[in-house]
Amino acid sequence: MSASSAAAALIDRLRRLLIQAMPQRLWIAYSGGCDSHVLLHACVQLRTECALILSAIHVDHGLHADSSTWAGHCGAVCHALGVDLHLQQAQIERRPGESLEALARSARNRLFANCLAPGDWLATAQHRDDQAETLLLALLRGSGVHGLAAMPARAALGAGTLVRPLLDVTGADLRAYANAHQLRWIEDPSNQNLDFDRNLLRHQIMPVLRQRWPSAATTIARSAAHCAEAAALIDTLADELLPRVAGSRPATLSAERLLLLAPERARAVLRRWLTRQGFRAPNQRRLARILTEVLGARADAQPLVAWEGCELRRYRDDLFALAPLPPRPEAELSWDGQQPLQLPMGLGRLSLEADGSMPLSAPPSYEDSASGQALPPARPMILRFGVSGLQCKQPNRPSRRLKQLFQQRGVPAWLRPYVPLLVDPQGHLLAVAGVAGCSVEDDSRRGQRQQCLRWEGHPWAHFGWFTEPLLIL
Q1: CA nearest 142: which of 287, 351, 244, 262?
Q2: Which domains, and CATH codes, for the chain?
């Protein structure tokens, strides 16, 4: 195909895609390399015709001495094309045994997802040759059909959608387009480093395969499409099974019900449940550990299987998939309840309201027009975490130990150290946020209205924990 024909075919492919389902905003993942530059340039040509709101994202991974120069190049190109560019800085912490490629990809995807609003698309420039390499890598790692499906043309990402519109286009066609339009791009020297598996395939294995089978990339990509169909059928079956094995809490699975399934079905359900929540599916070894060490654990055990970005835990009969727990907070904070209190470690915030509706931010002289009662004055409170030995006193009920409160509300032992505990200066328990309000004998506060304690913005609300406001005196 000539350069002009390749360029026209590429523009026409993008036009059909955009007309079929117009995105709210189209973001281009722009690395500055040839492929992403071609995608950005082609979408600019269609901006007016397709009424596109077009933006670009460049992620600086900070892994090369010239990365800031590359960011400057991307800024200059986007300025010349009249495209709004969002520069993002990735934070990558490499740990022994972890792939730098995988860590960079995960960091990049998190940044991409954070930029997308509902209805937005993020377009990436992977092409047919990339798809063939991805399938070969998955095959060498022993992946199942989901891995062998390689890269889907469309997938959910954050609040928006990831699209790969160039999967049927060859790398040679993209180079032809770039040369025809005299584009300038960055050549990342790490792309020549044969220590990376993908580079070894690209520069040494694929050329040999093409010599023997000129259409190797096309036929390998076709196999990926067949695997994608098989994976879709497995996902459909898993979706039908998921309601039957649901746990007692939202977003959980029942260990007992999973054990009733055949092992291959249980594995399919687990993979589907995890990916629908945005986690990467575990490998075969970890899936086997889940079936034996987690599902088969005794009821009072605290089994854990962890992998990149996910911790799978069990409490009683329920399986929980959650982001890795942060370090246990050790802070002790003073609070008078007048303003919301931001908690450490991303644990959300606490706020107090009078009678469950009236914010306690007004001056003490303010009176509620409905009741005529003055708002309770500020009182000193202390916020603590992970304290044992406390007891909660409640009217007309026997005192209960903190452990009993957690057990009655179904809060797992591994989550309890993150629950805010409010105590008075004498060390008496006032409230266990989201769990129980306690009463303290204090003659100075008799006749005062109750206050409503809310814990919001914490990471576990989707499990149904700590969502109810508490009345405390």
Answers
A1: 287
A2: 3-227 (3.40.50.620), 246-322 (1.20.59.20), 333-472 (no CATH)
